Amino acid sequence: MKNIFVDLMLKVNDLIDANNNCWKVETLRELFFEEDVDRIIKMKIVSNHDDFWVWVHNKNGSYSVKSGYWFINRLRKSELVREAEARPSLNDLKGAVGGAWVVRNEMGKVLLHSRQVFCNIDSLDEAKFQGLLWTLDSLCSHRLNRVMIAIDDDTLTKVILRPKAWPSFRAQCMENERRLRRMEWWRMVKEERSTNRGAFLIAQSAARGGFIQSYVAIGGPFWLSQLFENEEVLHVIN
User: Fold this and answer.
1) Which residue of 102, 122, 131, 140 has the lowest C-beta tally within 10 Å?
2) Contact present, 28 and 40 (Cβ < 8 Å)
3) DSSP one-letter string for 122-136
4) pLDDT one-digit tens code per residue, 41-78
C-alpha cells in the first residue's frame, strides 16, 4: 500500500460511495499506488447482493472440471507461462472498437440506424457490454418500448437471459436490467451474423474508418442499401 499509516479496520465498503454506487477515487489514491487504483476502479460494484465467490478461471465465474484441470496444468507449467507472457504480443490491441444498431419494423424494413466508437476498452467482453448498454439507452431515448433485440454474440445472450449462471457478469447484468425494466416489452434472441450483416458492417466501418462522432439516421446508410433490401426480402420470405 502507498500509505504506511492505515486503519487496520478498514473494509472494502469504506472505499465505496454507496449513494452513487462507485469507488471513492480520492480515498483510493490516498491509500494505493496509481497502478493499483486503476485495477480497483475497473472492478464492477455489485451493491445490492450479498458477497459471492467467482471462479476466475472460467468465463461465467462458475467452477467446472475442465477449468480445474486447466488451472492445475498451468501451475505445473508456471515457469513456461511466465516466459511466454513476458514476450511482446504479436497482436496489437486496438484503441477503439465500433458498435452499431439497426431498427427494423415487423416486415424487416430499416427504420433507423446508429453508429458509435468506444475508446479505452480493455477487453472484448467489455466492448460487447458497452455496446449493449448504449443500444438499450438509445432504444429508450427513442421511445421504442416494445422490441425484439437480436444480437450475434452467444455469450452476451446467455448472460442476459440466465444471469444466475454467470456470476462473474453480475454487475453488467444489473446495468442492463435497469434499462430493460424501462421497456414495456422486450425479447432477446441470438442471431447469426450472416443474417445481421448490415449492423456488423456499420460497426466495422466506425472502427476502421476512424469515425469518432456518433450519429442516428433514418433508414440505412446509402452504401448498404442493396444489402438491406436483400435482407428485407429474406425477412418477408421467412
Assistant:
1) 122
2) yes
3) --HHHHHHHHHHHHH
4) 887 777 666 666 677 667 667 777 777 777 777 777 66
Q: What domains can be seen in the chain, in order of their start residue?
A: 1-43 (no CATH), 96-237 (3.30.420)
Q: Which helix (H) or strand (E) holds 41?
A: helix 34-41
The Cα–Cα gap between 111 and 104 comes to 5
The answer to whether the CB of 62 falls within 8 A of the CB of 164 is: no
Helix H or strand E encompassing 73? helix 65-76
Assign 107 to helix, strand or coil.
coil
CA 169 to chain centre: 9
121 in Cβ contact with 130 (< 8 Å): yes
Q: At what angle are helices 154-161 and 170-180 packed, to 10 degrees?
A: 70
CA 119-122-124 angle, to 5 degrees, is: 95
Phi and psi of 43, rounded to 5°?
-75, 125
